Amino acid sequence: MTPDVPMTVTTSLRLPPHPARRLRAPAPSGVNSVTLRGVLDVVLTDPGIARVVSAAGNATLAVTAPPPVQPLVAAALAAAAPGAGVPVLVVTAGERDAEQVADLLRCVVPGRRVETFPAWETLPHERLSPRADTVGRRLAVLRDLTHPGDNGTIDVLVAPVRSVLQPLAPGLGDLVPVELGPGDEAEIDVVARALVDAAYTRVELVEKRGEFALRGGLLDVFPPTEPHPVRVEFWGDEVDELRYFSAADQRSLDERPDRLWAPPCRELLLTPEVRERAAALAVEHPELDEILGKLAEGIAVEGMEALIPALATGEMQLLTDLVATGTHVLVCDPERVRTRAADLVRTAEEFLAASWATAAEAGQAPIDLGASSFRDLAEVETAARIRGLPWWTTGAFTLASEDDDEHVTLDATPVDRFSGDVPKAVEQVRTWSRDGWRIVVTFAGPGPAQRAADQFAEAELGVRLVPDIAAAPDAGLAYVTQGNLETGFAFPGIGLALLTEHDLTGQRGTSMRDAQKMPARRRNAVDLVQLQPGDLVVHEQHGIGRYIEMISRTVNGGQRDYLIVEYAPSRRNQPPDRLFVPTDALDQLTRYVGGEAPALSKLGGADWQKTKNSARKAVKQIAAELIRLYSARMATKGHAFGPDTIWQRELEDAFPFQETPDQLGAIDEVKADMMQPVPMDRIICGDVGYGKTEIAVRAAFKAVQDGKQVAVLVPTTLLANQHYKTFSERFAQFPVKVAVLSRFQSDAESRQIVAQLAAGEIDVLVGTHRLLQPTTRFKDLGLVIVDEEQRFGVEHKEYLKSVRTAVDVLSMSATPIPRTLEMSLTGIREMSTILTPPEERHPVLTYVGAWEDKQMAAAIRRELLRDGQVFVIHNRVQSIDKAAAKIRNLVPEARVAVGHGQMKEHELERIMVGFWEKEYDVLVATTIVESGLDIPNANTLIVDRADTFGLSQLHQIRGRVGRGRERAYAYFTYDPTRTLTETSVDRLTTIAHNTDLGAGMAVAMKDLEIRGSGNLLGGEQSGHIAGVGFDLYVRLVGEAVADYRAQIGGESPPVEPAEVRVDLPVDAHLPHDYVPGERLRMEAYRKVASIQDDDQAQAVLDELTDRYGVPPAPVLNLLAVARFRVAMRALGITEVSLQGRAIRISPVALPESKQMRLARLAEGATYKAAVETISLKVPVGPDRRTPLRDVALLENLHATLKAVLEQPVHAAS
Asked: Disulfide-capable partner of 296 in 278, 506, 894, 1042 (CB 3.0 to 4.6 Å)?
């Protein structure tokens, strides 16, 4: 990989991986293992900084410094001697700046506790509540400011100006969190009550922050400040143990928290006083009754925080009132902070005027809520000065020509950006080391740091690779280390330069902040496709029915649970027939997805068999076609790629986000497929923005490592550019050549690219349909990646198919077209689904309503306030300019651009790139943005005339926002003057309901329902799908495919496991107090019903114990029945039932010898050869009188039958 490294590298140790930082209130969270304290020691020797330190305590000081150096002013104030050692409140313009400043401070003042104080992501007067995790983090900080004793003091608090201007309800710092540690005494009901008072929501299944669930002696809580929810196990009234569990599959993780620390989730708690006041106000203001009435009953309402001034007692407070005395307020970039503050105040006023509550009542706010509006920055400054807090600023501009008591100009400069130009960077470092400077280069991850050290060493520079810099570095050497810095700086006066990964390569490295520990790959996710009473279901044997309810019945002295399914009446004018489905046969039932409203089947009629058989016949033809493809692929020998290289690992280390468990699973599956000699054909389904591209990046890199070329096929030119950027950025540090081929290239460029491609000089080619032209020839193609697969037509696919039999193909899609869904569900193509949203993403807040000018203007302004951008989708090219002009009128300060498909190529490209590079704030566009455009900074979406769009279109468009960590808003508006059609009402309702992350698959299924599946799968198939329902249809295709496979391979077709009926006096069910709630019980029963062997039974038992506590006897019996059923299936028996006083067992074929054995082993047993049935007396216990029951009975029967039928026979199915 590298030539012999010259001896200038003094140490070449690998950097230790950085442990994840966790915001746990009890531990001082300034603890950070990466330290650059040595850099600060050098900075403190600078005369300008020394002047700043000596001025500590002065009322005002303006420090002029370039932006990267501004946080160092705070560091000099906070650091112990020679620093000033005073508490600091750093005010930044935005939330992101605050995060970056805090990261830098944690590196340079490692001994001090640095916290950020996040702002609400909602405005004070919105009818929306801030997120629970934001509130939890704020309250944890306020608690420590008011009661510094418990968790140590906060030395540096970094806050965006938004949270400094916003008044706080009085007494927030005194709210007591719910705390529990192992061995604590507490009544579980009292704890639950405390959580309800702290605004936690009680649910059946904890999935989001701010929820809790209670089951027997188990309490699940998801505190807003924790990375995972916590499960607390009680033993009586004592806390027995605490453990983290994964929200995805509800199973415990290996990590254990020290204690549960649950701060409240809202900043307005519904105490008795608040409820009384709400009741009183409701009488005075009947128009606010819907909100106030609920609050008076103690029900939390979205947006109730807007009423804080009217409901809380006492004066509202400011953050500057709560920090310790002697705290220095340091405003970074005062000009930006001032503009931001003015915008915030103005927009908040607008929102108050346009707020949903007042819009109805002729625009007059009934209660004066002004006290919670943002204050002016000047007011806050005055308040701070009255408290005697120094108010300093540090910005890049100054009017003072020389320093005096109130001005200090630092001798510091930003460094050049090299953006991947290695020789230039090496030259710069060489010049500095010749001049005897101290040089520090920081990288976010250990891999890139190692490579940079190697590159510097190759260029014969003095390099030292160190894990951190605790003391001042030596002059003349380049120190390469890890650190979380955004941009570098230089102090020429003292000869110090710091470069970051971003300066060198032009890309941001992995930020440690995102490296949280994720749960292990989930075993089996909790299936939330919930059966509601009234849903249509398909029973494999009996057809389509309607699910009514789940009931308990006592049969043969044992209690069992049954599902009642209603079928069509067998005679006219009779009540409908009912079928009782035992819970152990739950795997026979699936939810019906298919046509609009199918007729219910008749029980015992021949219709269902007919429907099923005609579907089977049709399926056979499809299967034959699918199998032809499949066998062609299986027969060809593709390229078997080698195992991962070191470079592969480095590329993966440099990924700037935390992979989700599903993503890792999918990556492993893709790599495993690539290493097989059979060509890969895998589709990856994951919702928009779930990290599919990263899987493609890694697969492409793996292919290139083996000297193969990669083609990346995308539907639009824009997407091609975006992917080209992503791939180039990720491959920047490696010798991989990436090119792009699309309509944006001139003919000459295209010809040159095609020539280089044929010569094998290009490793990865990203492009649109141009890639499919016969003139585009690859020298050695090894992998084709198809993104947004649902956008390609059949002829493109056919062309790919001809390629596909020989090379590996990886396709990606968010809403798969049912045809692909079907192929992958039947195992012709492998499919990986990514269901876990990346950490830190939140569902998009979706509004559906009529267009209203005031509202939309306020929505756009709200986004501009957090440096965001807005998409406005308007789908008619004729009137798009008119729409843009309307937006310009509403929000004059916004920079508006227009983009649509009928523009000239380069114009559209210019607009899109401009939007991508934040030159515009609002993009008014047609649905051109629907296809995979990824702009993480755009977090508000407004769709004009949403009623004219299709469902998957609406979902894809909505997926364009909410890519970052901010809360995203989507407004689907319609024209108030026109009436909506029924279908569009359906669509808008679906979109409004499926807002959770990962709703893509649900929307795809719903699409099948709304359209009927006609035009999706070709005419002949749709009828059959409507007839038997999607799930069963897919199962039939699967069976047909398996049969064909078996015929081709000459093996016997796989046998469906025979259904075994067990009706014995066994008390086998899930008691209500063990598994509460129908949805959870159904899920548990489904798992028990699908047990096929002992290992699975053990796994289900482990899961139940983990999630619900120690199982009572009926649950153990339930699992014993499942195991017994498996044993009977192995012996070929399909029925074991109690009839009268005998137990009937059939079918059993017994030769003479075995009949003798039966008579010898079981007293009074009879055998009827004609019907192949054994009849046994009910076995009795040791006292010879009491009949055996439950597990004892099952074990007895199992032993007897095993002894009689020693060599197993195969199930006759």
From this structure: 278
Amino acid at 338: R
pTM: 0.71
In the numeric block, the tokens 């495919």 are attached to 1041
Strands 681-686 and 808-813, by their bridges, are parallel
Nearest 5°: the CA angle 155, 161, 164 is 65
CA distance 1190 to 1112: 13
Q: pLDDT digit string (tens) for 400-437?
A: 667 788 889 999 999 988 877 778 888 999 999 999 99
Alpha carbon distance 1165, 1062 (integer Å): 19
Q: Show the tokens assigned to 1070.
A: 């899930």
Token pair for 980: 């909506």
Q: List Cβ neighbours of 412 (8 Å cut-off, separation of 6 or more).
A: 46, 48, 65, 66, 69, 489, 490, 491, 492
- Please, where are the H alpha helices in 355-445? 356-359, 377-386, 422-434
Q: Phi first, then psi: give them for residue 1173, nearest 5 degrees.
A: -125, 135
522 Cβ contact list (under 8 Å, min separation 6)? 246, 248, 249, 251, 661, 662, 836
Q: Give the containing element (helix H, strand E) for 498.
A: strand 496-500
Which position has the higher pLDDT, 536 or 276?
Answer: 276
pLDDT digits (tens, 9 = 90+) for 84-123: 889 999 999 988 889 889 989 998 998 889 999 999 877 7
Q: Which pLDDT tens digit goes with each residue over 903-960?
A: 877 787 778 778 877 788 899 988 765 554 566 677 888 988 888 877 667 776 776 7
127-151 per-position pLDDT tens digit: 778 888 888 889 989 988 888 866 7
Would you give the DSSP letter of residue 585?
G
Of 934, 939, 21, residue with least CA distance to 514: 21
Radius of gyration of the chain (CA): 34
Any idea how long the chain is?
Answer: 1213
The answer to whether 1069 and 561 have CB atoms below 8 angstroms apart is yes
Tell me the per-residue pLDDT of 380-391, one tens digit each, with 9 for 90 and over.
Answer: 999 999 999 999
- Contact indicator for 317, 168 with CB cutoff of 8 Å: yes
Write down the residue that tokens 């074991």 correspond to: 1136
768, 717 in Cβ contact below 8 A? yes
User: What pLDDT, on the 0 to 100 scale, is given for residue 60?
Assistant: 92
Are 656 and 693 in contact by the 8 Å Cβ rule? The answer is no
Choose among 673, 634, 999: nearest CA to 810: 673
Summarize pLDDT for 6-44 with one digit per residue, the tens: 444 443 333 333 333 333 333 333 334 578 899 999 999
Q: Which two tokens stand for residue 1091?
A: 């047990």
